[in-house]
Specification:
Blueprint (H helix, E strand, L loop, with lengths): L15 H11 L13 E6 L3 H4 L3 H20 L2 E7 L6 H7 L1 H8 L7 H4 L11 E5 L12 H7 L4 E7 L1 H14 L3 E10 L3 H15 L1 E3 L1 H13 L1
Parallel strand pairs: 1-2, 1-4, 2-3, 4-5, 5-6
């Protein structure tokens, strides 16, 4: 058996010129300077064994996601776990990926109770949201119940975490922004296969769809509101 690669985090960055561009546009580096926990949801995308087990970047973000979840729960916010649904076989997926790979992706979320399909180091609490999605995005209309569930709770801000940064997480962030939500992508709580892929998404989100901030800054914002 080959040794398991060590856990690690991406060497993430936003270029100085992009910070300068936004500062010139709106007079500040970040669009969203305060969080109201009761109106904030941590959205955790696809943290299931299929994606996490063999990716050191995925395993590396587990502590940050757990820290965000506990901080937000304590402050009165919502934690939402989003898992891949087992979807119907589609000819276009087989044409694009090939039959074998299409089948692997179709069943990547596993089967059985949702709580048992989540990565083993996470604990779902009674008031958490636990849903499946049948598209890359958790916010694509008709493919996941998450938008309606969050709207019912009065959520206007989503903290995007999980994997893969440049596929399902980016898709979710884009669609959440399109639906009118305030989006913050957590730079060190998303995971891709390479730093290049990860940082390309952070650039895209920061430039057009939302803020990009590390776990430490977001937890500080939540704790600041709690003690205010």
């Amino acid at each position: 058996m080959s040794p398991v690669a060590e856990e690690k985090l991406h060497a993430w960055r936003i270029e100085a010129r992009e910070y300068a561009r936004q500062e010139a546009r709106r007079g500040r580096r970040f669009a969203f300077t305060r969080l109201i926990p009761a109106r904030t949801a941590l959205v955790v995308i696809d943290m299931v064994p299929f994606f996490v087990a063999d990716n050191p970047y995925c395993r590396g973000i587990v502590p940050n996601i757990s820290r965000l979840a506990q901080t937000l729960r304590t402050a009165g916010g919502t934690v939402a776990w989003v898992l891949p649904a087992v979807t119907e076989q589609k000819a276009v997926a087989e044409e694009f990926f090939g039959p074998e790979v299409a089948e692997v992706f179709r069943t990547s979320g596993g089967t059985g109770p949702l709580t048992e399909r989540l990565w083993r180091d996470f604990t779902v609490h009674d008031d958490d949201v636990l849903v499946e999605k049948s598209a890359p995005s958790a916010f694509f209309p008709g493919r996941c119940p998450l938008p309606e569930l969050l709207e019912h709770r009065g959520i206007d801000t989503v903290l995007i975490t999980g994997t893969v940064t440049n596929v399902c997480c980016e898709s979710s962030a884009r669609d959440a922004s399109t639906l009118g939500l305030r989006v913050i992508m957590i730079a060190d709580a998303n995971a891709a296969r390479r730093d290049e892929d990860h940082n390309a998404t952070l650039y895209t989100i920061y430039r057009t769809f939302g803020d990009v901030r590390p776990t430490s800054e977001v937890t500080a914002m939540l704790e600041e509101h709690e003690t205010a």
